[in-house]
Amino acid sequence: MEGPGSEGAAAAPLAQWRSDFSRLFQHYLDRSTPHTVNRWLGTLAVAMIYILRVYYVQGVDPELEALDGASLPTKGADEFRPFVRRLPEFKFWYSITKAFIVAFMLTFISVLDVPVFWPILLCYWIVLFVLTMKRQILHMIKYKYVPFDIGKQRYTGKK
Question: Are residues 141 and 95 in the same domain?
Fold first, then answer.
């Protein structure tokens, strides 16, 4: 019969392996930080493998995340910064790479292979876009900001 401390003894090697793996993984992440181009090329390769996998199984994955946009200072004491990154490049790279890897792994689970009628998927995407961009769109409307140029304005002189 096993004593009350036997569960801890069995879990100790697993915890040690997990700690070692986490430390090694963080070491390689830290070493990859200055190699921006190589990291993005690796992410592009992962994305292409994922796209090929989705094409091969003829499926679609419409995963979207809502991100907060940068905001202007609201108090006089706030320092004006024209462009403040809320999400550093490294964290963005890490998140998008992790998302592609997880999405790639999920393509192998047949339970998640649900047929989707494309117009419904398009409507779903439009609703998600409007809900996540509502604040930014209202801000652009309030300050009469048009992010695209519809053509050059032409001023006609007095005739």
Answer: no
Give the global pTM. 0.47
Structural tokens at position 91: 């964290």
In which domain, by residue range, is 132 found?
A: 116-146
Structure token digits, residue 145: 């900001």
Say how many CA atoms lie within 13 Å of 157 toward its Cβ: 1
Interatomic CA distance for residues 18 and 33, integer angstroms: 23
- Whether 151 maps to a domain, the answer reads no
Residue 2 lies in a domain: no
Indicate the DSSP class of residue 126: H
| Cα-based angle 65, 105, 35 (whole degrees, multiple of 5) | 70
Higher pLDDT, 34 or 59: 34
